[in-house]
Design a protein that fits this description.
The chain is an alpha+beta fold. The chain has 2 domains: 217 residues, PmbA/TldD superfamily (PmbA/TldD fold), CATH 3.30.2290; 131 residues, no CATH class. The chain is built from 8 helices and 8 strands, in the order αβββαααβββαααβαβ. It has a 6-stranded antiparallel β-sheet. A two-stranded antiparallel ribbon has the order 7-8. Helix 4 runs parallel beside helix 5. It is globular, with a radius of gyration of 23 Å.
Length: 375
Amino acid sequence: MSLLPSPPIDPPDDESAELLAVASRVAAQAGADEQVEAFVGRSSYTTVKVHAAEVESFTAATTAGIGVRVVRDHRQGFAWAGSLDDDVVADALAEARDNAAFAEPDEWVGLAEPDGVAPVPFDAFDPAVAALPAERKIELALELERMVRAGDPRITGVRVASFSDSTGRFAVATSTGIAGAGRGAWCSMGVLALAADGDETYTGNGSTVGFGPDELDLDEAAADAVLRATRLFGARAVPSQRLAVLLEPRLAASVVGLLGGTLTGERVLKGRSPFADRVGDAIASPALTLVDAPTRSTARVWPAGATCSSPMACSRASSTTARAAVAPGCRAPALRSAASRPRPASAARPWPWPPGRAPTTSSSPVSTPASTCSR
């Protein structure tokens, strides 16, 4: 049985400590010939949708669960359970062990180990998110719909205006000595506008996100939806030609975001990154700046007017010239070093990532660049 050290950072509250205790108990059950990792999370969320000045739906729920990973003989097995009852947790551990026996061996499989580097404290949790009354959430969604309809005479309707929020806590513990817990909260609003002019009809969406209700900007969301719904009226095709293209922030974020997937530790370690052998080479325009600042929730370093849809997309300092920054011949110790740092809570998507996009945490010395920050 492996003995777990004390967490490098004290859990931020009693609920996080409770989750850490569950994860630690599971990890401590690792046998002499295996490694065990447990991830425990609990979250609550609310979603309000309005249409035509009426509430279309109101959803509120709380979920909890545990994920277990077991590594034995270079094989790993996973299991997940949607309950934290003792018997369910025990079954999840047994199921992960059973699944590991049927997995294909992989020489690179293994859990991260502590590297002695002090983790950066990070607590993006605003109690105001959970304290916001349901009535106020509905009022905000209705107000956003009203603002969009009044934004331009060509706006003929709003398909949906919504308010969403979530609070979450998580804990992770491994038999190799990693243990930590955290929490997070976020809220967001979105709206889809419909506009018509003659025989042309377009839609446009706007959104606003924040770590707390005070960070929501309804004016920005409404104006963006109106602009996107109306700006293509009268547009025409241009002849085929070779031109420099200026990408808007959302599209630029998506394009550069594709690059981030090639910089993960796994890609480098397995020789699947096109930048592994280009350390020090310029790989983009000197005008491009990638900012890595996952823990700077209140002291962002982006230029005025910048927008960022993934504040924890990366983990290192920025550079003024984009260069390949993946360590050549990246080895397991480097992977363990980065992976051992506790990550902000992500069990319930408590950050303003775009809908449908999950957070990407990397095991590389340099992880995904903050390519979603642009303008």
